[in-house]
């Protein structure tokens, strides 16, 4: 979230997951939303929430429950049992350390003159500060510091002059600049909206007589729903029992202007998801194959840094013929409340979370594949661990190009000066992380990875699909442990 100083109390840089559901037969949806959020947990581990309402009940009644923590920490069976309603929306949220509060957890529930709406948002608006100011000058009082509330206010305001809730959503979206995948429940409709560039994924699923709108297809699989289709960039979809799925493409841009976040394929999304028809797993395998073609090296073993480096490592192995193997054991029980070792302590966060299989690497020349290097501190430690376990050579291959620029659309890349690739050559980076060689994926390979879909490459090239804001204050809030924690959660 990019903000001016008046809002810098909100330092959240989110990447979130959304899950909305409407059961036309009137069955309760809260427990299914819960399992949907479980499948989206990798998109956000700081807070989560569910809001439901009964479409045959009073229009203003929305039951919501949210809290800080993982889905299984926040919800108990009794919470879900009390949440009666056949339409609802859920959200998982990620934010940087020290910046998360319960008030900022989603979904947001807003009462307005035509009823109550609940909203869950994934993405980052670059004009949120201006929009917020504009609303404040006209009397709005905000309860949270997240830009999702700005969207909710605009929808409520537009609803006064619109024929329908979906028209209000579309009119509100036309004021937004940046990345958003939204799920909104109005008293009788489930509405989804994706920004015209399509930065964030959003898809539609169906199970029996209920419809789902969610961030990733893995959530559909988890609840036994079938994939219907992706919400298109610039599309507003409305789902109701009377009309099924209705589409409004008023905001759509020419196809070549779309700009999906390539990082969804490289790292964010779960490998068993498909985004806009492209398998995330297959795109990672492809990235590994490209690395093998473009940065070959002789070695005895290819391995991935778990979890997100594994598919690319397999791709490298398939293209090079070098055997693929597991070299790391991850401790899956390191949760959100993990107490980080002090700098002076002999334990390191990396070693607590990850150990090397000595038998797998001793005496071998190892190619280690990772999805990215941000600051380099984690890579440096992992390379050292491989050497300590007896690897004779460690060659690092990265399945993305070097990060050189900030992201304004919801990814918490730190300020340029904190990026290891800033002002350094690849040889210099290689030396810092202590590897024998280092290779990155070429920028020209990214589009091939996404099977030719138009993509955003801003954080690698500095060329953004839209004019970025002048001010960037995100770096100072970035937690260097985050790279590792997020890697470990995948
Ligand atoms: S700048 Fe990078 S991380 Fe941000 S949306 Fe574009 S590709 Fe994704």
TrEMBL record:
<comment type="similarity">
    <text>In the C-terminal section; belongs to the purine/pyrimidine phosphoribosyltransferase family.</text>
</comment>
<dbReference type="InterPro" id="IPR000836">
    <property type="entry name" value="PRTase_dom"/>
</dbReference>
<protein>
    <recommendedName>
        <fullName>Amidophosphoribosyltransferase</fullName>
        <ecNumber>2.4.2.14</ecNumber>
    </recommendedName>
</protein>
<keyword id="KW-0460">Magnesium</keyword>
<dbReference type="GO" id="GO:0004044">
    <property type="term" value="F:amidophosphoribosyltransferase activity"/>
</dbReference>
<feature type="domain" description="Glutamine amidotransferase type-2">
    <location>
        <begin position="16"/>
        <end position="242"/>
    </location>
</feature>
<feature type="binding site">
    <location>
        <position position="459"/>
    </location>
    <ligand>
        <name>[4Fe-4S] cluster</name>
    </ligand>
</feature>
<feature type="binding site">
    <location>
        <position position="261"/>
    </location>
    <ligand>
        <name>[4Fe-4S] cluster</name>
    </ligand>
</feature>
<comment type="function">
    <text>Catalyzes the formation of phosphoribosylamine from phosphoribosylpyrophosphate (PRPP) and glutamine.</text>
</comment>
<dbReference type="InterPro" id="IPR035584">
    <property type="entry name" value="PurF_N"/>
</dbReference>
<dbReference type="GO" id="GO:0000287">
    <property type="term" value="F:magnesium ion binding"/>
</dbReference>
<feature type="binding site">
    <location>
        <position position="407"/>
    </location>
    <ligand>
        <name>[4Fe-4S] cluster</name>
    </ligand>
</feature>
<comment type="pathway">
    <text>Purine metabolism; IMP biosynthesis via de novo pathway; N(1)-(5-phospho-D-ribosyl)glycinamide from 5-phospho-alpha-D-ribose 1-diphosphate: step 1/2.</text>
</comment>
<keyword id="KW-0658">Purine biosynthesis</keyword>
<keyword id="KW-0328">Glycosyltransferase</keyword>
<dbReference type="InterPro" id="IPR029057">
    <property type="entry name" value="PRTase-like"/>
</dbReference>
<dbReference type="GO" id="GO:0006189">
    <property type="term" value="P:'de novo' IMP biosynthetic process"/>
</dbReference>
<keyword id="KW-0479">Metal-binding</keyword>
<feature type="binding site">
    <location>
        <position position="308"/>
    </location>
    <ligand>
        <name>Mg(2+)</name>
    </ligand>
</feature>
<keyword id="KW-0808">Transferase</keyword>
<keyword id="KW-0408">Iron</keyword>
<dbReference type="InterPro" id="IPR005854">
    <property type="entry name" value="PurF"/>
</dbReference>
<keyword id="KW-0004">4Fe-4S</keyword>
<dbReference type="GO" id="GO:0051539">
    <property type="term" value="F:4 iron, 4 sulfur cluster binding"/>
</dbReference>
<keyword id="KW-0411">Iron-sulfur</keyword>
<dbReference type="InterPro" id="IPR029055">
    <property type="entry name" value="Ntn_hydrolases_N"/>
</dbReference>
<feature type="binding site">
    <location>
        <position position="371"/>
    </location>
    <ligand>
        <name>Mg(2+)</name>
    </ligand>
</feature>
<dbReference type="InterPro" id="IPR017932">
    <property type="entry name" value="GATase_2_dom"/>
</dbReference>
<keyword id="KW-0315">Glutamine amidotransferase</keyword>
<feature type="binding site">
    <location>
        <position position="456"/>
    </location>
    <ligand>
        <name>[4Fe-4S] cluster</name>
    </ligand>
</feature>
<feature type="binding site">
    <location>
        <position position="370"/>
    </location>
    <ligand>
        <name>Mg(2+)</name>
    </ligand>
</feature>
<dbReference type="GO" id="GO:0009113">
    <property type="term" value="P:purine nucleobase biosynthetic process"/>
</dbReference>
<feature type="active site" description="Nucleophile">
    <location>
        <position position="16"/>
    </location>
</feature>
<dbReference type="Pfam" id="PF13537">
    <property type="entry name" value="GATase_7"/>
</dbReference>
């Amino acid at each position: 979230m990019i903000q001016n100083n008046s809002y810098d109390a909100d330092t959240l840089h989110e990447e979130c997951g959304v899950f909305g559901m409407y059961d036309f037969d009137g069955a309760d949806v809260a427990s299914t939303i819960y399992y949907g959020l479980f499948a989206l947990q990798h998109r956000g581990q700081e807070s989560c929430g569910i809001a439901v309402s009964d479409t045959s009940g009073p229009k203003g009644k929305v039951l919501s429950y949210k809290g800080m923590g993982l889905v299984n920490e926040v919800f108990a069976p009794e919470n879900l049992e009390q949440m009666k309603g056949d339409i609802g929306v859920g959200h998982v949220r990620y934010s940087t350390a020290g910046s998360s509060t319960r008030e900022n957890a989603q979904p947001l529930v807003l009462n307005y003159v035509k009823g109550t709406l609940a909203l869950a948002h994934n993405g980052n608006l670059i004009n949120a500060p201006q929009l917020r100011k504009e609303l404040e000058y006209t009397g709005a009082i905000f309860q949270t510091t997240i830009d999702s509330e700005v969207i909710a206010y605009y929808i409520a305001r537009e609803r006064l002059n619109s024929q329908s809730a979906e028209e209000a959503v579309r009119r509100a979206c036309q004021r937004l600049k940046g990345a958003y995948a939204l799920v909104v429940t109005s008293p009788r409709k489930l509405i989804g909206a994706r920004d015209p560039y399509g930065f964030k994924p959003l898809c539609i699923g169906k199970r029996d007589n209920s419809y789902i709108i969610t961030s990733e297809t893995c959530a559909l699989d988890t609840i036994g729903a079938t994939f219907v289709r992706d919400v298109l960039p610039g599309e507003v979809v409305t789902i109701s029992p009377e009309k099924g799925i209705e589409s409004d493409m008023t905001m759509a841009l020419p196809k070549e202007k779309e700009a999906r976040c390539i990082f969804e394929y490289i790292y964010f999304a779960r490998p068993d998801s498909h985004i806009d028809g492209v398998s995330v797993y297959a795109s990672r395998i492809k990235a590994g194959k490209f690395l093998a073609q473009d940065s070959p090296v002789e070695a005895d073993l290819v391995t991935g840094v778990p979890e997100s480096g594994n598919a690319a490592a397999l791709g490298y192995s398939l293209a090079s013929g070098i055997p693929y193997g597991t070299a790391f054991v991850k401790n899956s029980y390191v949760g959100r409340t993990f107490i980080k070792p002090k700098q002076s302590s002999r334990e390191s966060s990396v070693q607590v979370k990850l150990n090397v299989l000595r038998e797998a690497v001793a005496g071998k020349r190892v190619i280690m594949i990772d999805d990215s290097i941000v600051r380099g501190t984690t890579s440096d430690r992992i390379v050292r661990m491989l050497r300590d376990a007896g690897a004779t050579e460690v060659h690092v291959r990265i399945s993305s190009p070097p990060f050189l620029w900030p992201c304004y659309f919801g990814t918490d890349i730190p300020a340029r000066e904190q990026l290891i690739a800033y002002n350094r050559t690849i040889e210099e980076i290689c030396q810092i992380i202590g590897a024998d060689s280092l290779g990155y994926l070429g920028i020209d390979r990214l589009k091939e990875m996404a099977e030719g879909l138009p993509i955003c490459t801003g954080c690698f090239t500095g060329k953004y699909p839209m004019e970025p804001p002048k001010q960037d204050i995100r770096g100072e809030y970035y937690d260097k442990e985050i790279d590792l924690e997020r890697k470990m959660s995948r």
